[in-house]
TrEMBL record:
Protein name: Uncharacterized protein
Source organism per UniProt: Melastoma candidum
Length: 109
């Protein structure tokens, strides 16, 4: 006959984080991929052709495809979210879904 001994009580707490997932909604971590490109569309609906290293990184490394949403920043405080349109052999078209906004470089986004 087998006997079971109770060695003690185990308390399980739910995993707690210091911030909620919604705090990161505008960041690439858990949000949209954020990529550098020196030229941003000037307004909502504007299209920018992305070629070269950025194109390679987006399509081959990150494996982004048509209709994927991304954010572009220009390194001067400009940030715009948009969608990947047509993908060609040497580049892709990025269409802005909003007007570009200016972000204070000292605050994390």
């Amino acid at each position: 006959m087998l006997r079971h001994r109770v060695l003690g009580t185990i308390r399980v707490r739910p995993y707690a984080t210091s911030s909620s997932p919604s705090d990161y909604s505008s960041q690439s971590r858990g949000g949209l991929p954020r990529l550098f490109f020196p030229v941003l569309p000037s307004a909502k609906g504007g299209v920018v052709r992305i070629q070269g290293d950025e194109f390679f990184h987006m399509t081959k490394v990150l494996r982004l495809s048509a209709d994927d949403r991304v954010e572009l920043f220009n390194g001067k405080g400009g940030l715009v979210s948009g969608i990947i349109g047509d993908i060609h052999r040497t580049g892709l078209d990025f269409t802005a879904l909003e007007d570009p906004r200016l972000i204070d470089p000292l605050t994390p986004q």
